[in-house]
């Protein structure tokens, strides 16, 4: 009965997943944007997602919060034309919204703390306005179906067939691999069900478990995921994880971080936050085919400092 309920839940989420995918045309425009162009490039987006991973770790947020924040960010960037100087506020806004949706109220960091720890050049008022814009443009659809949704369901289905596999199929490892993939905009184009199954089958292959492979194949048939589609994304996932595990790759630390600063530094951070003024409206455009400009209340923002890179290095 448990397995039946899980398969039913799996099918229901599968039917809803397309509603929460970023617009592929918008993602393609980001991918085609060069570093010298005025818009957001893929490299710029990926770096910001790594910053979100560092902040998620620092505040002790769950993987679900990080994955939802990335989903909100990609859906917004694929919908609206924005400038790089606004990306910090947008990404922090997405993280704050995600935390309020997922985490217990007592565990959600204040807007002030997010700005202070992220060393961002905008105010609480700016962030509040940005969150309002993000919420309205995404029609307040926050509880998205993501690859993590499917990863948890696949894992639960595997356990429902044999309970002794809990230590073999490591969910924490699968979640860490998913976070690594989400740091690349390419994987925002993948269907969540397919991306999660790609990660699962990759891990099953490494474990050399024929029983688990049979369960994964049963799930694949149940969702009617084609073999060519699965193999394509499995190959891309494999390349990503190989590069990510290499010593040359600079990656966010997925452990909870501790930030230690001197009293003088803390005082400077505190005062610098209050020195940032509210800034005027900036018109921005959406990615729609009509190319009409929408006037939005955007705060004028500068890029965050290199603090998060130091954070990732444990400094």
Percentage of residues assigned to helices? 55-70%
What is the CATH T-level topology of the largest domain? Answer: Cyclin A, domain 1
Superfamily at the CATH H level of the largest domain? Cyclin-like
Low-confidence stretches: 254-258, 271-280, 289-315
What does the model show?
The structure is a single chain. With 315 residues, the protein is mainly α. It has two domains: 21-143 and 260-312, Cyclin-like (Cyclin A, domain 1), CATH 1.10.472; 147-245. It is built from 14 helices and three strands. A hairpin with a 6-residue loop joins strand 2 (284-286) and strand 3 (293-294). It is globular and about 55 Å long. It starts with a helix and ends with a helix.
Descriptive key words:
14 helices, Cyclin A, domain 1, 2 domains, disordered C terminus, 315 residues, mainly alpha, globular
